[in-house]
Design brief:
The chain is an alpha+beta fold. About 35% of the residues lie in helices and about 25% in strands. A three-stranded antiparallel β-sheet has the order 1-3-2, covered by helices on one side. The longest helix has 13 residues.
Length: about 70
Amino acid sequence: MTEDKIVVVQIYNDIMDATLAKDKLKENGIDSFLENENPIGLNPLGGTELKIFSTDKEQAEKIIAQ
């Protein structure tokens, strides 16, 4: 039995872009969630992370790239 890990598929500086990508994944049957939804300037180390299960990574990357 393989363990399904949660991975970051993309990091966004704009919360709207992150939300649109999350919605696009949902429309295609992929569960995801956002983490670090801080406004720009409050988190200098990165932006909003879009996370998914590792088994969906390849398909999610293709969907986001469209």
